[in-house]
From TrEMBL:
Gene Ontology terms, MF aspect: endonuclease activity; peptidase activity; RNA-directed DNA polymerase activity
Cleavable signal peptide: none
Record organism: Cajanus cajan (Pigeon pea)
One Pfam family it belongs to: RVT_1
GO biological process: proteolysis
Reverse transcriptase domain residues: 1-176
Keyword field: Endonuclease, Hydrolase, Nuclease, Nucleotidyltransferase, Protease, RNA-directed DNA polymerase, Transferase
UniProt-listed InterPro entries: DNA/RNA_pol_sf, Rev_trsase/Diguanyl_cyclase, RNA-dir_DNA_polymerase, RT_dom
Gene3D superfamilies assigned: 3.30.70.270, HIV Type 1 Reverse Transcriptase, subunit A, domain 1
Lineage of the species this protein comes from: Eukaryota, Viridiplantae, Streptophyta, Embryophyta, Tracheophyta
Domain of life per record: Eukaryota
Record-given protein name: Transposon Ty3-I Gag-Pol polyprotein
Amino acid sequence: FIRPSVSPWGALVLLVNKKDGSIRLCVDYRQLNKVTIKNKYPLPRIDDLMDQLVGACVFSKIDLRSGYHQIRVKFEDIPKTAFRTHYGHYEYLVMPFGVTNAPGVFIDYMNRIFQQYLDRFVVVFTDDILVYSKTREEHTENLRIVMQTLKDKQLYAKFSRCEFWLNSVSFFGTCDL
């Protein structure tokens, strides 16, 4: 999802240790973000999302694997994602973490994909999807629909971080349902 670059842009890079011991490449996009027109896409209010869940008894959480990296950058914007390391000059072909509009672009994309299911049995919060249902039978069908939608859009979950068929769930960071 990166390629060599000859772009005049070139952000600095930091390597950061992750909780699991692996290393994350962090690109410092502060200079790009300063000249980017901000997309003011509103995040949903947690209390509004919680209201949708009244009466639900069965839950599944789906965590998308490196969510932003599953969205392609527009061709004309690829050079703006360039970064420099001591190994060379590269640019992203997918949406990198750290650019100012990434959260809004991602949540808008997810909301468009699941629009017909929002307020019925799906809650999207950044790269997390909550499927909720009143019965186990209903949940089987709801999960099938969500999984098929992800497959159709070629979006991939990180199954080690997904949880299925729960009677209660922690979502939105710290809220227990």
